[in-house]
Design brief:
- The structure holds 2 protein chains of 2 kinds.
- By secondary structure, chain A is α+β, with helices and mostly antiparallel strands.
- Chain A folds into 2 domains: 7-111, Phosphorylase Kinase, domain 1, CATH 3.30.200; 116-330, Alpha-Beta Complex (Aminoglycoside 3'-phosphotransferase, Chain: A, domain 2).
- Chain A has 12 helices and 10 strands.
- Chain A has helices spanning 7-18, 72-85, 128-144, 160-176, 183-194, 236-243, 251-254, 256-267, 276-286, 288-302, 309-313, 315-330; strands at residues 25-32, 39-46, 52-59, 93-97, 107-111, 116-117, 203-205, 214-217, 220-224, 231-233.
- In chain A, the strands form 3 sheets. A 5-stranded antiparallel beta sheet of chain A has the order 1-2-3-5-4, with helices on both faces. In chain A, strands 6-8-9 form a 3-stranded antiparallel beta sheet, with helices on one face. A two-stranded antiparallel sheet of chain A has the order 7-10.
- In chain A, strand 1 (25-32) and strand 2 form a beta hairpin.
- Chain A is globular and about 65 Å long.
- The termini of chain A are far apart.
- Chain B is mainly α.
- Chain B has one domain (7-130).
- The chains are: A alpha+beta, B mainly alpha.
Chain lengths: 331, 138
């Protein structure tokens, strides 16, 4: 039986291949728990000249075992484009094991950024206005990121209507492919088609826009992480996604009117384009990709293709979101 | 078969053992998280085992009545094996979904409201199965 090569050794070999002059040794390697999609670790390395560096190592789960699927090649192209563009701050993408031959699966390596996830700065007794300003400022940076700077592999929707139809189809098509039938998702899809809001210009959509994915510190601007679900879409998908988030100490729930007024002021959108009902619409639409992947995971289990306990556990999450969706659509 | 303890009781006892005996002996944080997940899944399964055949059978009749599909509630003596009940439930859900889509597309508010009240009952059962779980902590 072949002996598994430890990840620090693999990383050292990879760095020797891609950056031989560095002559790096891996001083420490610590997996970070909590992510639902990728396997992430923090690695400290030391170069031959004594210089030390901390890296983030972000890998596909081996054998495609993760509940959530996304394309690492696409993410790598996107990270490079975002880094070159500079509209929005991201950790510097360094290297990519595109084949996974050395690191065991496709792996992106980027600089570690010191900072606190914005979510951890939110507390019950904290003035949320400052955090809200940061959060919405980043949302506006996303909206202002030039689309022509984005990699060609990112799909460019022909227009707003066709984009929204395709986003609704994420739910509808996934439901059609289930071994089960989901009347709630069928109803939600019909409701989304019947209740389209006023359009706004399409822009970069992060796809998992929540304060846990924004790192803040005194000595640098907010840094945005976790770009695996990024696409070109309606910018209200990101803020709508957050508006319905179950995360505690929500900057939206604390004062929806102030949140939306600030967003309108930043974007120039009207009250018809941005209001609580429109946020609820985009909460459902912005959740589509993640919801569908959870639904497909559960369906896979029913076909005998289980991917571990997380899939079964997340059936609870599906139930939670079904209740939220039905509540919104029934009003 | 030995009917008592029921499946619900057996699964809940496994859950208790997991949390009281296995979890304290585990130091690896990622494995601890897995154990918490397994505990919830066991408790989910316990609630389902206790009620799912009755819940699906009751709802199947309601869904078919709404859709006026011409199919009927299974006659007395119809199979209560879980796979058969699930298939009848799936078929009823499918005809109900079609009826609801037509109601929404036609702007028929009254019929849509009737349909959503049925869906609300389905969601209520799902909430019972969730055993108080909340997604906070992601």
């Amino acid at each position: 039986m072949a002996t598994e090569i430890p990840m620090p050794d693999r990383l050292e070999r990879f760095l020797a291949d891609v950056e031989p002059d560095l002559k790096a040794t891996v001083v420490s390697y610590r997996p970070i728990s909590g992510g639902y999609s990728r396997i992430t670790a923090v690695a400290d390395i030391r170069a031959a000249d004594g210089g030390e560096q901390t890296l983030i190592v972000r890998s596909d789960p081996p054998g495609g075992e993760g509940v959530f699927q996304s394309e690492r090649d696409r993410e790598w192209d996107l990270l490079q484009a975002l880094w070159d563009d500079h509209t929005i701050e991201i950790p510097r993408p360094r290297w990519y094991d595109a084949s996974g031959d050395v690191l065991g699966s496709k792996t992106i390596i980027m600089d570690h950024v010191t900072g606190t996830p914005l979510q951890l700065t939110l507390g019950p007794d904290v003035d949320l206005a400052g955090a809200r300003k940061i959060f919405l400022g980043v949302a506006d940076q996303l909206r202002n990121t030039p689309l022509d700077a984005m990699p060609q592999v990112m799909e460019r929707p022909a227009d707003w209507d066709s984009y929204i139809d395709s986003a609704i189809d994420i739910y509808a098509k996934a439901e059609q492919e289930l071994t089960d039938s989901s009347p709630i998702i069928r109803y939600v899809s019909a409701w989304l088609r019947a209740n389209k809001p006023q359009p706004v210009p399409l822009s970069v959509v992060h796809g998992d826009f929540q304060p846990g994915n924004i790192l803040v510190a005194d000595d640098h601007p907010p840094v945005v992480i976790d770009w695996e679900f990024t696409r070109i879409g309606d910018p209200r998908e990101d803020v709508g996604y957050y508006s319905g988030s179950p995360l505690p100490n929500s900057m939206y729930t604390a004062d929806p009117e102030a949140f939306l007024a600030e967003y309108r002021a930043l974007t120039g959108f009207t009250e018809e384009q941005v209001n609580p009902q429109v946020m609820e619409y985009f909460f459902i639409l912005g959740m589509a990709e993640l919801y569908v992947q959870m639904m497909q995971g559960a369906d896979g289990l029913s076909r005998g293709q289980g991917k571990g306990i997380m899939t079964t556990f997340l059936i609870n999450s599906l139930c939670y979101f079904q209740e939220r969706y039905l509540d919104i659509c029934s009003r | 078969m030995i009917a008592k303890p029921t499946t619900e009781q057996i699964l809940n006892d496994c859950s208790r053992e997991l949390m009281e005996v296995v979890l304290p002996a585990v130091t690896d944080e990622t494995v601890q998280v897995t154990i918490y997940m397994m505990d919830l899944v066991l408790r989910n399964a316990a609630v389902r085992a206790a009620h799912e055949i009755a819940w699906m059978t009751e709802e199947t009749a309601e869904l078919e009545a709404f859709a006026d599909s011409g199919t009927s509630t299974p006659a007395a003596g119809a199979s209560l094996h879980l796979d058969d009940v699930v298939e009848r439930y799936r078929a009823a859900s499918e005809v109900f979904s079609g009826a609801m889509e037509r109601a929404v597309a036609a702007g028929d508010g009254e019929r849509t409201k009737q349909g959503t009240s049925l869906l609300a009952r389905r969601v209520g059962k799902e909430q019972e199965i969730m055993c108080g779980w909340s997604p906070v902590g992601r």
